[in-house]
């Protein structure tokens, strides 16, 4: 495998995704993925896992959610076996976003919790600090979907602090967390007010399921993508770290 070519294709593919051409990005990244098939050496596996993550983000952008989920499970399988793939948090975060869009909020919450736990265990390294706000955002969104508003507010508060520290007060991720906190606050007030209008967010009992239906936050999970430009990094491979907010269906 020509690793340099695969890296360049990842760079190009993620630029296409940024420029609003997800279908072109899918073609580019699929080509990059094929180039990794001829080697099972750890450097190739590492790049394959990154490419699968980026391809999953491209699939998600076109609504191909099941394709995105399959890519992410493949990436997780590689990361579990590859010693050089030392950070699975990016894959867990992307999986939480995809599962959320599929309406699988309890499983999405589990993946966000896994990512957050891993990142907190490795908090001594500044290398992964920029991923903490994304983990708190995805965690909070899924908690809000499940009607756990107080816990969601705590997650958004921790995420806002982490985002300001690592990204600055004007970063889009910081703004997303602040908006998410406002949304959860409104949901909490609506749930606590028995006289609220019928259109307000509230748990609804389903005839066949005694558990409340998930509420619908106005915020959404975040996807984590990489241009795979830095040879020294692991799962995300560094470079320009692109964190995109995906609109909720």
**Main sheet strand line-up:** 1-2
Q: Strand tally, please? A: 4
Percent of residues in helices comes to: 55-70%
- Based on Cα principal axes, name the global outline: globular
Order of helices and strands: HHHHHHHHHEEEE
Which whole number gives the mean pLDDT?
A: 81
Alpha-beta classification:
mainly alpha
Helix count, per DSSP?
Answer: 9
Unreliable stretches? 198-214, 228-249
Q: Largest beta sheet, briefly? A: 2 strands, antiparallel
Percent strand? 5-15%
| Quaternary organization | single chain
What's the Cα radius of gyration?
18 Å
Distance between the termini: 38 Å
Write structural notes for this entry.
The protein has nine helices and four strands. It is 60% helix and 6% strand. The strands form two sheets. It has a two-stranded antiparallel ribbon with strand order 1-2. Strands 3-4 form a two-stranded antiparallel ribbon. The longest helix is centred in the C-terminal third of the chain and has 21 residues. It has 249 residues and is mainly alpha-helical. A hairpin with a 2-residue loop joins strand 1 and strand 2.
What's the short version?
With 249 residues, the chain is mostly helical. Helix content is 60%, strand content 6%.
Sum up the structure in keywords.
disordered C terminus; 249 residues; two-stranded antiparallel ribbon; mainly alpha
Write the layout of secondary structure elements.
Layout: H1 3-18, H2 22-35, H3 42-61, H4 65-81, H5 89-101, H6 105-121, H7 132-145, H8 149-166, H9 172-192, E1 205-206, E2 209-212, E3 222-226, E4 241-245
Antiparallel strand pairs: 1-2, 3-4
Helix pairs in contact: 1-2, 1-3, 2-3, 3-4, 3-5, 4-5, 5-6, 5-7, 6-7, 7-8, 7-9, 8-9
């Amino acid at each position: 495998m020509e690793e340099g070519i695969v890296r360049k294709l990842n760079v190009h593919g993620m630029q296409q995704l940024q420029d609003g051409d997800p279908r072109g990005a899918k073609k580019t990244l699929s080509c990059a993925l094929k180039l990794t098939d001829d080697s099972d050496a750890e450097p190739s596996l590492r790049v394959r896992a990154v490419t699968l993550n980026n391809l999953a983000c491209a699939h998600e952008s076109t609504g191909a959610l099941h394709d995105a989920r399959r890519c992410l499970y493949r990436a997780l399988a590689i990361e579990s076996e590859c010693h050089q793939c030392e950070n699975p948090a990016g894959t867990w975060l992307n999986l939480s976003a995809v599962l959320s869009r599929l309406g699988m909020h309890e499983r999405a919450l589990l993946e966000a919790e896994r990512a957050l736990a891993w990142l907190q265990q490795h908090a001594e390294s500044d290398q992964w600090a920029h991923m903490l706000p994304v983990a708190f955002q995805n965690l909070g969104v899924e908690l809000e979907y499940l009607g756990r508003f107080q816990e969601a507010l705590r997650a958004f508060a921790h995420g806002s602090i982490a985002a300001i520290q690592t990204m600055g007060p004007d970063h889009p991720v910081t703004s997303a967390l602040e908006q998410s906190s406002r949304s959860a606050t409104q949901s909490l007030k609506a749930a606590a007010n028995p006289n609220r209008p019928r259109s307000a967010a509230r748990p609804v009992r389903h005839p066949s399921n005694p558990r409340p239906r998930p509420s619908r936050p106005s915020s959404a999970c975040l996807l984590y993508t990489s241009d795979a430009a830095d040879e020294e990094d692991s799962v995300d491979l560094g470079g320009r770290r692109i964190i995109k907010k995906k609109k909720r269906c």
